[in-house]
Design brief:
RibonucZ/Hydroxyglut_hydro, seven-stranded mixed sheet, 31% helix
């Protein structure tokens, strides 16, 4: 068995691991690259083998940096099965068509305003391409063994993080490898804790927060302070948020603050039809959540859903205190960038960054305190307050990853550290070598390792 790292090396995007077993090949995750242009260009580059030569795909979860390449893979000729949990399948039905639609909208905008350096801007794939790819998904239950390709036994365990998120273990009878996927936290606003780690000869572990610890500040208090001071200025609170996970956590927190009278009863708009649909998926898979029935009810009634583009544009003309939650979480696309364009130039408003911001994204530029942010070929001035809510992250931090790893009964032969910026991946490498004394390796892009 061999594994080749086709993504998530020295970056948190583009998760794709090519596993070769005998004459068969499969992908664990099939994600899009996001952020820096040199990373996004990899989405257009050919894979090291034809799509038709890949026999199967296993998705750890539905986030676009783990699933968003799938429509393009099918478009290129992939005809195998895509294995995922039921919740991941349900979320992909929402997120992949949305991804295709956003790419079509972005290309159309660039063409209408002649902002493309090419004669015609094209999407990687269309909404219809994404819908077509969904036919290939077959569901696999947590804890049930199956053969994704002949001779290779697979199993899934809960990874926390979001509904359906799984760690993937593959075993050919002589060697085994475990892919952590994105690990959730032991105590999360929404999700149950990750299952204890399974035993494996080799381990691929994410390192998104490998160089830091989450703040121990009360996220409710922190969020209340931001809302109250912005409302006192008569400003709007704009929150770029991932439609799956972060948007639901924010809506629940804000609703709880209003119910307890900690913040004023200002209007809350969820400007993401995808997030609204995702909320319904969350509530269909309540067994994966740690919410009480009352909290589930609060979540379902926490915001006014903005349906049409016209309603979205009307929000930009509103004045007075309000909260607008809109995708995407790193401000890489979607409706939120139009809100940033409208509200960032005014001091009374606040942009709240509610999670990790990958290098090269608009969110990262905002977090760094840049005085302008590039949107649709224009430099938009940032005069508003920019606040960060790291404590709402759905990713385990360095100490939480280490605690999860300590559950392994015996050390793996190699721990491959992926899905992290270079400083985060190297910090986790040092931490594991120092505290656990495990052999580690931070792989390079396209590196191949023989697991035997």
């Amino acid at each position: 068995m061999q594994v080749q790292f086709l993504g998530a090396t020295n970056t948190v995007t583009g998760s794709k691991y090519l596993v070769r077993h005998g004459k068969f090949s499969l992908l664990v995750d099939c994600g899009l690259f996001q952020g820096y242009k040199q990373l996004r260009l990899r989405n257009w580059a050919p894979l090291p083998l034809k799509a038709s030569e890949i026999d199967a795909v296993i998705l750890t979860h539905a986030h676009i940096d783990h699933s968003g390449y799938l429509p393009l893979l099918v478009k290129q000729g992939f005809r195998g099965n895509v294995y995922a949990t039921a919740a991941t399948r349900d979320l992909c039905r929402i997120m992949l068509p949305d991804s295709g639609g956003l790419q079509e909208e972005e290309a159309g905008y660039m063409n209408r305003h002649r902002l493309s350096k090419h004669s015609t801007a094209l999407p990687l794939y269309t909404r219809q391409d994404a819908i077509h790819s969904l036919d290939r998904i077959e569901t696999v239950a947590f804890g049930k063994a199956w053969e994704p390709v002949p001779g290779l036994r697979g199993s899934l365990t809960h990874a926390g993080h979001m509904p359906g998120a799984a760690s993937v273990r593959l075993d050919d009878g002589t060697v085994s490898i475990l892919f952590s996927g994105d690990l959730g936290r032991p105590v999360d606003a929404l999700m149950r804790a990750p299952d204890p780690i399974a035993q494996a000869d080799h381990l691929v572990v994410e390192s998104t927060y490998g160089n830091r610890l989450h703040s121990d500040h009360d996220p409710l208090r922190q969020l209340a302070d931001i809302v109250n001071r912005t409302a006192a200025r008569g400003g709007a609170i704009i929150i770029p948020a991932f439609a799956v996970g972060r948007a639901q956590a924010l809506m629940l927190r804000i609703q709880q603050l209003k119910e307890h009278g900690v913040i004023p009863h200002l209007p809350v708009y969820l400007n993401s039809p995808m997030a609204a649909e995702a909320t319904r998926v969350f509530l269909r898979h309540q067994n994966e959540l740690r919410l009480t029935p009352a909290e589930c009810s609060a979540l379902s009634n926490a915001a006014h859903v903005v349906g049409t583009p016209e309603e979205s544009r009307e929000l930009n003309a509103r004045r007075g205190p309000m909260v607008v939650i809109a995708g995407s979480g790193m401000a890489t696309g979607g409706r939120v960038i139009h809100h940033i364009k409208a509200f960032a130039p005014h001091k009374r408003n606040t942009i709240v960054l509610a999670g990790f911001q990958a290098g090269g994204t608009r969110g990262a530029h905002l977090a760094a305190g840049d005085s302008t942010v590039r949107i649709h070929g224009e430099d938009v001035p940032v005069r508003c307050e920019v606040a960060q809510l790291d404590s709402l992250s759905a990713h385990a931090d360095a100490a939480e990853i280490e605690s999860w790893l300590r559950g392994m009964k015996s050390p793996p032969r190699t721990t491959f550290i992926t899905h992290g910026e270079p400083d985060a991946a190297d910090a986790l490498r040092q931490r594991i070598e120092r505290t656990l004394r495990w052999p580690t390796h931070v792989p390079e892009y396209l590196e191949t390792v023989d697991l035997h």
